[in-house]
Amino acid sequence: MTPVTVPVSTERPTAPGTPSTSGAAPAPRGSSGPRAAVWLVGAAIVLVLSVSVAVTLGPAHLPVSDVWRSVAQHLGLDGPLGLDRLAPLPDGLVWELRLPRVLTAAGVGAGLAVCGVVMQSLTRNPLADPYLLGLSSGASLGAVCVLGLGVAMVLPVAAFAGALLALLATLGLAGAAGGLTPSRTVLAGLAVSQLAAAGVSFVIFWTSTGDSYQDILSWLLGSVAGATWTSVAVTCGATLVLGGVLAATGSLLDAFTFGDTAAAALGVPVERARRILLVLVAILTGALVSQSGSIGFVGLVLPHAVRLVVGTRNRLLLPLSGLLGASFLVWADTAARTVFAPREIPVGVMTAAVGAPVFAFLLWRGRGRA
Amino acid sequence: MTDDVLGPGDARSPGGLAAERLRWGAGGRLLVDGVDVTAPPGTVTGLLGPNGSGKTTLLRLLAGVRRPEDGTVVLDGTDLHAASARARARAVALVEQDATTDLPITVLDAVLLGRIPHRSLLAGPRASDRTAALEALDAAGAAALRDREVTTLSGGERQRVHLARALAQQPRLLLLDEPTNHLDVRAQLETMTVLRKLVADGVTVVTALHELTMAAHACDHVVLLAAGRVVAAGTVEDVLVPEVLEPVYGVRVDVLRHPRTGRPVLAYAES
Ligand SMILES: Nc1ncnc2c1ncn2[C@@H]1O[C@H](COP(=O)(O)OP(=O)(O)OP(=O)(O)O)[C@@H](O)[C@H]1O
Ligand SMILES: [Mg+2]
Predict the structure, then answer these.
(1) Of A132, A182, B158, B236, whose Cβ has the fewest other Cβ atoms within 10 Å?
(2) Is the peptide bond before A342 cis (omega within 30 degrees of 0)?
(3) Nearest to B231 by CA among B47, B15, B44, B16
(4) Are A258 and B96 within 8 A, CB to CB?
(5) What is the Cα–Cα distance from A275 to A186, expressed in whole angstroms?
(6) Does residue A20 contact residue B143 with C-beta atoms inside 8 Å?
(7) Are A136 and A199 within 8 A, CB to CB?
(8) B89 inside 8 A of chain A by CB
């Protein structure tokens, strides 16, 4: 084999002012390292402050210090810290009513946002959200069966079961259609979703009268109004464990950026990775939906908003979306219960009402980019 | 784990790429039908053939991202389809014909993707990964694009970025699917120079090409495909001749000589 000489000189002169790669250059958008740490620490602080302040808001106003005193008291830290005991009334307000609700909102918001990032990266579909696999419709069907038909089952269990059945139907359908490619996954999810939605409509139409209708509607729109410490355990527990696992898959999700073949060429076992991640997302989403109903918008738009600000690296995007999603839902729920007090509106209405304009603004700000 | 690093292979094997009897079908049709490809280390092998002849499909089999129904792909003595996906990805990089994304990813981040096989999936890019990515950008002539968003690049710029991503993977076998089809003439030559530099370092390069004159300039060997089978394989002088090309492409071919380099220049006319 004779080495080939290329006929003309191919040295392209570097234009003056062209940034050189070797010198120390400012870290680009979304770079890891210190900037990522700043984002994460900042978002964590925002979350702690959001929770503390949100608990103080409501018909009866409390100082933030009461919130922390109540928490310290229940964790048995008031003695060691030398704090005065809180009166039973404010303590009950914090510990029994508001804190469970606020923490549930945080757990749900974080979990949905993380699931949204995973779904969008996996399917490379900007419209993907945690409910893509038909999960919310499946959960809704389970829930309305309890609320409307009086099926003797605890509502969260029925909702969770409905979500998992929907997942199995979607995976089965996509598999039968030839494998879990992004487009087949989306289409199979759509089919399952529509079918379950038809079931939901049927049950509502067949059974509903006044009261149960209000119950059903509030569940369908999503709400954390009835949250208890059990809800906190389920939502925050699932988010910490499953969301934590998902948040660690950043590099794996990055590999999907240019499609399945590119991911495979980077050493990712594409089908297996996708199946495992979809199942984790489904279990987490199912657990969240079982407690809060299907709150829209957080899982769809929050990941986009965060991506527009910090870039596409999933290793930063996943945990940051989780933290900001938690704060977002805490405030959306606080607004849902205070803005029209004493009336309360479902938090799902709030997320859309607050989130849509924010998203429109981000889109407008990012104009000129593809 | 023994399969975690694709070893240099046993001493008897000649090294480089040796694929035998590859077969893959879809939709009831064999798209790759008993194809053999050998590519010694330190050479550029051109994969030629009309549209739909199976070049892209064959490259995917060679890259190990698609499992052949029959046949083997051996790189430096190790069966690629028996190795772990990660070990394979450290040895083989693939530049696809048209890889796009809707995500607002920056060029540097896109190139850093090439480092994924070289670190734990749980870890982020290290300083050494960044250095490798910057070097790859430089080598691919895309250094100035570093902070741009991939979605805003022109087709040719994007192609350089994909080349840089593959270079960042530091492969021993580099597979490219028409890496020059969006490039201007100078950029085409530059890309080929990059490939020649790589093979000088002992990398094995296999690239699908449409431009036969470019193949004549830059390739040591060429493999000509038609309808999923190898029609001819050998040196440029053996394969890029009218008798071989005319029946495959259905056009009249004349072989001229480049006045400076003496390499073949191909001219076509309708038959
Ligand atoms: N998954 C598939 N199912 C059915 N047919 C396929 C599939 N993939 C490719 N083909 C067909 O196989 C043939 C070979 O495709 P391939 O992409 O390998 O051709 P190619 O040589 O790369 O063509 P081009 O020069 O146009 O890029 C084409 O006719 C194509 O339509
Ligand atoms: Mg092709």
Answers:
(1) A182
(2) yes
(3) B47
(4) yes
(5) 14
(6) yes
(7) no
(8) yes
Instruction: Output the CA torsion B51→B52→B56→B58 (10° steps).
Output: -120
CB–CB of A267 and B192 under 8 A?
A: no
- DSSP letter for A94, please: I
**Nearest ligand to residue B54 Cα:** 1
Interhelix angle A210-221/A182-207, nearest 10 degrees = 160
For residue B204, pLDDT over 60 is answered with yes
Window 18-47 of A, Cβ < 8 Å to B: 18-22, 25, 28-30, 32
Residue B213 DSSP symbol: H
Look at A265 and B93 and tell me if their CB atoms are within 8 Å.
yes
Which pLDDT value is given to residue A368? 52
CA A174/CA A133 separation, integer angstroms: 10
B49 lines ligand 1 (CB under 6 A): yes
| Residues B246, B270 contacting (CB under 8 angstroms) | no
> A28 and B146 in contact by Cβ < 8 A?
yes
Which tokens hold the place of A54?
């949100």
Quickly state the pLDDT bin for A222 (edges 50, 70, 90): confident
Q: Is the confidence at residue B13, as pLDDT, over 80?
A: no
Structural element, H or E, at residue B75: strand B70-75
Residue A245: what pLDDT? Answer: 94
Q: Which amino acid is at A196?
A: A
CA of B159 to the centre of ligand 1 (A): 20
Answer yes or no: are the C-beta atoms of A33 and A27 closer than 8 Å.
yes
ipTM of the complex: 0.90
What's chain B's Rg over C-alpha atoms? 19
B24: closest CA among B225, B221, B224, B203?
Answer: B225
Under a CB-based contact definition with an 8 Å cutoff, are residues B90 and B5 in contact? yes
In this structure, are residues B221 and B209 in contact, taking their beta carbons and an 8 Å threshold? no
CB-closest option in A250, A266, A370 to B151: A370
Q: What is residue A98's DSSP assignment?
A: I
Task: Output the DSSP codes for A277-332.
Answer: HHHHHHHHHHHHHHHH----SHHHHHHHHHHHHH-S-HHHHHHHHHHHHHHHHHHH
Task: Please state, in angstroms and rounded to a whole number, the distance separating the CA atoms of residues B114 and B236.
Answer: 32
Q: pLDDT tens, A48-62?
A: 999 999 999 888 888
